[in-house]
Amino acid sequence: MTRATEAYTFAAIAIASYIVLFLGLVPLPETVQDKIIPVLPWWALITFGCYCLGNIGNAMYTFRDCPEAYHELMGEISQAKSDLRSKGLQLN
């Protein structure tokens, strides 16, 4: 199974489960049926958003700097500038 197929399968199972719970086909206490089940999609959306923000924040925090690549790039820039100056181009 591909990742997309797994994701679609999980989504279909989750949606089917929610519909069964929302329509009351499974006997649940009245408090759960009236107060918790209707807000489950919002809870899932907020939880997913928090996960995404945390994942992005963690990726930014653990992003590795590459000082050798920086120095290599700066060397190439200075080499390009000197080459352009030798051809008569005015640079700032």
TrEMBL record:
Transmembrane stretches, start-end: 7-28, 40-61
GO MF annotation terms: glycosyltransferase activity
Compartment(s) of residence: Endoplasmic reticulum membrane
Membrane-related topology note: Multi-pass membrane protein
Main location: endoplasmic reticulum
Record's GO cellular component terms: dolichol-phosphate-mannose synthase complex; endoplasmic reticulum membrane
GO biological process, one term: GPI anchor biosynthetic process
Protein's UniProt keywords contain Repeat: no
Record carries keyword Transmembrane: yes
Cited InterPro entries: DPM3
Protein origin, superkingdom: Eukaryota
Biochemical pathway: Protein modification; protein glycosylation
Pfam families membership: DPM3 (PF08285)
Entry keywords, A to Z: Endoplasmic reticulum, Glycosyltransferase, Membrane, Transferase, Transmembrane, Transmembrane helix
PANTHER family in the record: DOLICHOL-PHOSPHATE MANNOSYLTRANSFERASE SUBUNIT 3
Protein family (similarity comment): Belongs to the DPM3 family.
Task of the protein: Stabilizer subunit of the dolichol-phosphate mannose (DPM) synthase complex; tethers catalytic subunit to the ER.
Assembly description: Component of the dolichol-phosphate mannose (DPM) synthase complex.
Name used for this protein in its record: Dolichol-phosphate mannosyltransferase subunit 3
Highest classification ranks of the organism: Eukaryota, Fungi, Fungi incertae sedis, Mucoromycota, Mucoromycotina
